[in-house]
Design a protein that fits this description.
The structure holds 2 protein chains of 2 kinds.
Chain A (H helix, E strand, L loop, with lengths): L10 H14 L3 E6 L18 E7 L8 H11 L1 H5 L4 E7 L1 H6 L1
Parallel strand pairs in A: 2-3
Antiparallel strand pairs in A: 1-2
Chain B lengths: L13 H10 L33 H5 L17 E2 L4 H7 L5 E6 L5 E7 L2 H11 L6 E6 L5 H19 L37 H11 L2 E5 L9 H12 L5 E4 L9 H9 L6 E4 L2 E4 L1 H9 L3 H6 L1
Parallel strand pairs in B: 5-6
Antiparallel strand pairs in B: 1-4, 2-3, 2-4, 5-7, 7-8
Helix pairs in contact in B: 3-4, 6-8, 7-9
Classes of the chains: A alpha+beta, B alpha+beta.
Chain lengths: 102, 302
């Protein structure tokens, strides 16, 4: 299914995509902006755009890493974004093998 | 006069059910599906009623037609509660519905409603094992509060109609069955904003997560989480029957600076954060994924 922001990727969404793609060489990378679900959220004041994303990443770089480690890899790549208004990301991080076995 | 003893009737969590209700789309009027005639003078939380008005209830109920979303109590299969808690989830539905708990002599002890029948049965089994031996469960497909209450009423009416007695656990003043739903309160780092910490915050966090088996750092309180992810995490921990401590990272009065300090301590930028035996287990996504894979029960049991 196409991600919601697929037609017109907003700046942060494309930055996220770029950063993750180049570092993780992901075979699947879905970036879905779900900020609209969190409008009115206590932490989202004023600039309510591009604060919440769902990420689905399949990368062989996750092999041999636990979930915490995988999420840390993603968070580390998105450090600047988290500093500059990205509020939360929901991460599904799998290896190609795990996807294949499902 | 019917008296209502407890305000936290929905066992799993009154706060999450409230939020659940508020996000659910409006339902069709129940009258089109159900026609349980209201017999008890019930306020919104019906799990406990006085036994006094039931002197005449048998007579009053005799000409009552009850059509409800769940099977009749008498027609519902009696299922033994397994000794091993891991097997429990497989025996009882984790969905919403009404359930009836029987003791070793197959005497009905309590009829309850729940957002997760298996979680409630597990809780009862832990708190009153001798009274929770077999259980009948009726899943309610459209589990808004009214439908659940209707299902509960239909079973209560059926039982009272058949025996003339209110299940002991549902009598007013009986707190055996519902007391567990009174939640623990959140931990606080200091008694107030004016109190200076004598140790660095990181050290306090370190002690906290090492001295307590499971600690959840959440946004909002455990009884009223202010973030959907925190709410989901609490729901998972409660469904697993985990005894956990919680801290509200948004409480700047009592937990001043906790948010930033915890991010540094755990090297994890978002909340909620769940610690097990001093180690970061992860956030909402990780906990959810571990639960889906069935890894949590064994993990928390260790």
């Amino acid at each position: 299914m196409a991600s919601r922001g697929g037609a017109a990727l907003l700046p942060r969404a494309s930055r996220i995509k770029q950063k993750l793609q180049s570092a993780l060489e992901a075979s699947v990378l879905e970036v879905e902006d779900v900020s609209y679900q969190h409008a009115g959220h206590a932490a989202v004041k004023g600039n309510a755009n591009e604060t919440h994303f769902n990420l689905r990443i399949v990368s062989s770089k996750f092999s041999g890493q636990g979930l915490v480690k995988r999420h840390r890899m993603v968070y580390d790549l998105l450090g600047e974004e988290l500093q500059s208004g990205l509020h939360a990301v929901s991460i599904v991080a799998k290896t190609p093998q795990e996807v294949g076995s499902n | 006069m019917a008296t209502i003893a407890n305000t936290s009737a929905l066992h799993s969590s009154s706060s999450s059910s409230r939020t659940l209700n508020s996000i659910l789309p409006p339902r069709k009027p129940l009258a089109s599906r159900l026609s349980c005639t209201q017999r008890f003078n019930l306020s919104p939380n019906p799990l406990s009623i006085s036994s006094r008005p039931n002197v005449s209830s048998k007579k009053r109920l005799s000409n009552l037609h009850v059509i409800c979303a769940v099977k009749k109590l008498a027609e519902t299969e009696l299922v033994a509660v397994p000794a091993e808690t891991e097997e429990l989830a497989g025996k009882f539905p984790s969905s919403s519905g009404v359930y009836a708990v029987y003791d070793g002599n197959t005497e009905l002890q309590f009829i309850g409603i729940s957002r997760s029948i298996s979680a409630s049965v597990l809780a009862h089994r832990k708190s009153v094992p001798e009274l929770c031996v077999t259980v009948k469960a009726g899943v309610v497909d459209e589990p808004d509060r009214t439908a659940l209450t209707q299902a509960w009423k239909s079973w209560m009416e059926e039982h009272i109609g058949a025996t003339g007695k209110v299940p002991p656990g549902n009598e007013s003043g009986n707190a055996i069955w519902v007391k567990r739903s009174q939640k623990k309160s959140d931990l606080r780092l200091t008694p107030g904003r004016h109190v200076q910490l004598t140790v660095p915050l990181e050290e306090l966090i370190d002690r906290l997560v090492k001295e307590n088996k499971v600690v959840a750092f959440i946004k909002g309180s455990r009884s009223a989480p202010q973030c959907g992810f925190s709410q989901r995490v609490i729901g998972i921990l409660e469904r697993e029957g985990v005894d956990f401590e919680s801290l509200d990272v948004l409480d700047e009065d009592h937990n001043t600076g906790l948010r930033e300090a915890l991010k540094r301590y755990s090297n994890w930028p978002t909340f909620p954060q769940i610690f097990l035996n001093g180690e970061l287990l992860g956030g909402c996504d990780i906990l959810t994924s571990m639960q889906e894979k069935g890894e949590l029960t064994a993990l928390f049991k260790k």
